[in-house]
């Protein structure tokens, strides 16, 4: 069942929003972090016995679980010799009072699209290696994202979870005679992925300040948002702006510089946690 969001933003008390802006104007945050500093990142892989790959990611109190499933299907008409990628996200009511059952709303759809675009456009998955028979059969990679607790920055948590699940996924057994996937029987063949994954960093503008990895309260008073997916070497695969306020070219250039520095630290953290 797909879930919807009641509101895009919580109703953070006005005094809290004003205090957040006052702190940031002095280069401070309520949890003592610097504007460009992430909360603690934790990654646990292999959390689902039924998935070909899975991961649970925590960024501070924000928590998501991501599963990777494989199936065999016809290729898309414009990529007859490449596998298919399908990404979806569900924002569960247990993760926030903002979410309730119902048709998918924009925030859930956006998380899926941002994750899809970062992975697809960076060519992190070697899709040509997922071709079984050109024009007839290819592997389809399904990435399912579920929120478990929302304390801000679900976008970055979701993409980290997707990368961790893909890097640890193993291909299921495939019976060529019957053309069926034998679920529950994994091979020793790993998902064909590149060594360096795309890392998605989302920056938020609050007042005249830009920060990364916002808490829920900080997200609620955010006036503009820029999400950038790129490799640790800085090759950008995806960019998306959110929120209503316009940003200048100078601000955008500063955000790119800021996220590039943060990205290298996050990549190093992920690599150490995945060893």
Question: What does this 3D model show about the protein?
Answer:
By secondary structure, this protein is of the alpha+beta class. Helices cover 27% and strands 35% of the residues. The chain has a single domain, classed as Ribosomal Protein S5, domain 2, CATH 3.30.230. It has helices spanning 14-25, 106-122, 154-167, 216-220, 249-274, and strands at 3-5, 41-45, 53-59, 62-73, 84-90, 99-101, 131-133, 137-149, 170-175, 180-190, 199-206, 209-212, 224-230, 236-242. Strand 11 and strand 12 (209-212) form a beta hairpin. Helix 2 (106-122) crosses helix 3.
Task: Give a concise summary.
With 275 residues, the protein is α+β, with helices and mostly antiparallel strands. Helix content is 27%, strand content 35%.
